[in-house]
Amino acid sequence: MARDLAYLPVTTAKIGRPCTAMGGRITNYLIRFAYPNGRALWVGSAEEVNQCVRTTNGTVGSNSYTGPAITTAYKDGIWQSVPPDDPCRAPGDRRGQDKQMVPGQPGRLTVCRDATYVRPPYRKRHGRDIARALAETLNSLDTVPSQNSCQGIGGADERGIRLIFDYPDGPAAAVTIWMDCVPAINNGLLQADLDDRVRGQILRLAPS
Length: 208
Prior knowledge:
By secondary structure, this protein is α+β, with helices and mostly antiparallel strands. The protein has 2 domains: 2-76, no CATH class; 87-205. It has 4 helices and 13 strands. Strands 6-5-9-10-12-13-7 form a 7-stranded antiparallel β-sheet, covered by helices on one side.
């Protein structure tokens, strides 16, 4: 549990995110991690229908939603992160995404076409060298704290792309490309503009 929570991306910047306002039950959790020297670390989180709560240790916080896993741990005494059946639907939240578009050294890349996944083939996998080359390109871009929104480009009608970077250890990091929007590149904590060079590199890797 400590390992997985430590992998969550954290930030102290003001990050925008759209949240629904559905009514429903909210269950707050306070988790205490005890250490051999007698010290303790407290982490607060919650499970709620809108999935818009933050997980925080009081110093830094994460927007990544962990409510169901914490509820299962509380009820059954089991901590288990279940990967999605479809890699394109992976959450893609990884520590370091507040500093780099793609943190660390990814080991594999899955390029997913179209957020609705209705036109197969909609995904294509690539190995380590391609994954790291694209990560290097994305990390070279100028970024701003993400507002998780963008301005539509008039007349543009291109299918969106989601990039899933997998690692030998820990969770994947996801980057969404809104081809018809500005800023187009978003990892949930950082956003950047999409120029022709990066667009071409991504399209060459995407399924047709």
